[in-house]
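Worked example (supplementary).
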Amino acid sequence: MTNKIVSLKEAVEQIPDGASIGLPGFSIARNAVAFAHEMIRQGKKHLTLSSCAAGIDAELMVAAGAVDHFIYSAGTLDKYGLVYTINRHIDQGKLTTEEHSMLSMELCYLAGSIGISYIPCNSLLGTDVLKKLLEVAPDKVKESRCPFTGEKQVLLRALQPDIGVVVANYADAEGNTVVEGPYWNIKEMAHASKKILVIAEQIVPESFIIQRPEMTMIAGVLVDMIVELPWSAYPTSVYRRYDYDDKHLRMYTQANRDEQKIKDYLDEYVYGVTDHFEFLEKSIGYKALMEQMAGPHKGY
Amino acid sequence: MSDFRLSEMMVVCASREFKDNTCTLIGIGLPYVAGVLAKMTHAPNLTVITELGAIASNPVDHAIGIADPRSWYQAKKFGGFLDTMGMILHRGRCHVGLLGTLCIDAYGNINTTEVLVNGKPRHMAGSGGANDIASRAQQVMVITRHEKRKLQETNHFLTSPGFLQGGNSREKAGLSGDGVTRVITDKAVFEPHPETKRLRLRSIHPGIPREEIVNETGFKVEVEGVPFTEPPTPEQIRLIREVIDPQRLYT
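After joint prediction of all chains, the assembly is encoded as:
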């Protein structure tokens, strides 16, 4: 077996400018934050991102000017606010988008994951969401009728990002990957992608995986690169590992409302540190970080 | 009549519409309080589903949203969008969807995508699961503050379908379900006219003057002869204040 375990820096070095990337987060849960930071530090450009409910990972890469095109369904940081920087880039014409519903985007990934070229969907009909998709992505979305029942449907082209990034609770050295808790689109997004990068909170021995194989979301044979990096989603949460950081998210959603403040944020927390551990030291510190650890009972 | 807040009136109006042994897709906030109130009163077997994959959970510790693990507590199943939005909602097994909105038009169409500020479009949140819920749930309820800018004749952007242009246009577009059957505000409850599908007043909350409804609604409404909304019972008020939302985070 080839060694798939690499550092985050090495994994990101493999990703070329112009790549399309599937992100694993949902709002303030399970964002690929450490990944986004490293992409920005390495100066990646002209990326296409896809994210079901855009969070901090997507927004930081947009803020850094790394992203040309964004495929998503909603942008929200829950009670903390909206993804104001992404919105500002859209309003200013700096970012092109394909905006889906949650399910239509999921179905694009599902088609991609099982290798069919398109999939029908009965959402979107009659709305401006569909009208706009037909305008901006006529090669990916069509209105049609079911050949069997005649009912109106939307046909969605399969979505297969170059790289699917997964923030996992555990993975073994082969890449057998465990994601605990609700997983929204992560399973389909990963399997749709041409390459899978797993960022695991912890690398576990194979003996751990084979005790409960039903817990494995992605079979190791499909995984290309594995990074072991605890707290990689901080300040967002990873179920059964750690909670989101209320204080940092409050500070973040003050910064992302303002063009200069989000630049200052990037300077301080992304460009101003060399790696994720330095970011953790600077943004929260060991003592407060330990208080974010999930309890064994409730999972947060 | 017991003393109540208008937010409590909204919660009670939504809660009444949940039937026992049914399935609902809701978010956190007022919709969540309404769902829990229904479970604690007339619908103990209501199954609450959050779109990202937690089914039949009992949210704790003042969950802030569906991405907060506090709202996944004691779930009976964890899965993903295929389990919730696919095999339940798109399959036609979600009885009621309860949605919030930025704006709603006279035919119950929802806009959560972009609004005009000084004539320029400003991007907001997008659809998320709302379009899917509005397209595929058997029945949809919308809960919103009652302000003229939020209730307009037509929307700048149609994110999630109500009755589109009215009449049978929803059905003709290929959409299933009964569409938006209730719009619950802090002043009144709307329902669609059975034929035209245009929203009309079903009831006005006690204490709200009729001219206030006319002034604060951006589309034409008939207020004459509209009955008052049945006020919350003392028990419903007690449950909201003492058990479900004692810190008044949502109400």
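Two points are worth noting when inspecting this output. The radius of gyration of chain B is 17 Å. Chain B touches chain A through 55 residues (CB under 8 Å).
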